[in-house]
Amino acid sequence: MANKGNKKRRQFSLEEKMKVVEAVDSGKRKGDVAKEFGITPSTLSTFLKDRAKFEEKVREASVGPQRKRMRNALYDDIDKAVFAWFQEIHAKNILVTGSVIRKKALNLANMLGYDNFQASVGWLNRFRDRHGIALKAVCREDSDRLMNGLGIDKVNEWHAGEIIKLIADYSPDDIFNADETGVFFQLLPQHTLAAKGDHCRGGKKAKQRLTALFCCNASGTEKMRPLIVGRSANPHCLKNVHSLPCDYRANQWAWMTQDLFNEWLMQVDARMKRAERRILLLIDNCSAHNTLPRLERIQVGYLPSNCTAVLQPLNLGIIHTMKVLYRSHLLKQILLKLHSSEDQEVDIRQAIDMIAAAWWSVKQSTVVRCWQKAGIIPVELADSDAEAASSESEVAIEKLWRSVALATCVPSEINFQDFVTADDDLIISQELIDTEIIPGMEAGENTDEAGSEEEGEASLLQQPKITITEAISSVQKLRQFLSTCVGVPDAVFGQLNGIDEYLMRKVTQTLVDSKITDFLQTK
Fold first, then answer.
1. What domains lie within the chain, and their CATH numbers?
2. What burial letters (b/e) apply to 383-404, b meaning 16+ CB within 10 Å?
3. Where is the HTH psq-type domain (predicted)?
4. pTM of model > 0.70
5. What distance in Å separates the CA atoms of residue 7 and residue 60, rounded to the nearest whole number?
6. What is the per-residue pLDDT for 249?
7. CA distance linking residue 263 with residue 243, whole number of Å
């Protein structure tokens, strides 16, 4: 009896508990699972009952996976504030010591109004255990090397080691890269100089910007739907709009946030699960990417910090090509409106359509070339036909630029490339500072609050709703117009046929459904 009373009670880490739950989910009998992990049926039932808590902790990364207890800190708001700061610092690959964390904790505690808080060594150890943080001693030389940038040595090391391991089990079709970029969607050529180098942390220009997330695979065979983040949740131009060529979300600053990125990740993961695929996703370590949800079908690989300019395929020409195509679409719109004396500005709906059209128009050869430039897939012979077509396109765009620039009095020192790259320096995700961390602890996170529907839309008229009959009539008019043109490609007529078939199916189904409804109402 004495031995039984002194028997030490076993404690399970969060990781071990999740393994038990996953074993039951895989279809194993509960009795067999209990025997396999050496637990009683009542303990198993407790794990299953608390699974929602475990999953939430894993998803939010608020505790380390080896953590065995989930008690909250005594000063919970200080703990959350310090951890939010630590995540931001960690994402930038900046090394911090325990003393630095203690000093930051005292600073944040003072801002929160706590005078008696002691950032003791004991508090630091408990903070580390709560969040699964390992602090390592680093010699001065290594610290200086990391703080000053890892340079070419880090790039070569990644090419020779880590990336080979990451891609070993995946084909180019299943290796993806995702990245965000900012877009001044209403930028006119004559305002290029004023926008150049603007980070746009807020103010009036925040209403004129979007953040776009793009994702494509290494073979160039698959480009995912873009995710566009705006400032207005319900702009007038999207009223009665139920289908877009992208996903649209909104928040106060039109930035990418952890919540939005994780929502997108979960949707991709679910899609891959339905398709029974497993993919590798390469991303940078910006603040929106540093706390990921639990994923089943996506393995995430982080690109080395300070090296994305030479290692991230989307940064090596894919996003730039999209912007070239978007700006050329915008120039064509401006040229047409100049002749009709219309307002040159575009609304969010038009911008979304043009961004999506530009993205889908990026050629497979361009995508593959950028992945090769990143050193992730082997370099093959260049496609001379694609390069010749690209050269012809550049000449046509340059002519278009000169026409618009002349008509809108653009300064002679501004060229088309300046117009394309004017928003390259836009901030695409929130960068936390102490004064932004504290309001989040006191009043809850507010970065996902969107602007009102009127903001940025006041000068743009609401578009009237188009009926399906009017849409079909427009397709017929397009047919008549194209029949008068010379040399129209067959593909254009094919696309028009596809639109026509879709509209006819829709109107036929509507008529059939209404007849059935009428019949049921008479019974």
1. 14-60 (1.10.10), 76-141 (1.10.10.60), 171-377+392-421 (no CATH)
2. beeeeeeeeeeeeebeebbeeb
3. 3-54
4. no
5. 35
6. 95
7. 19
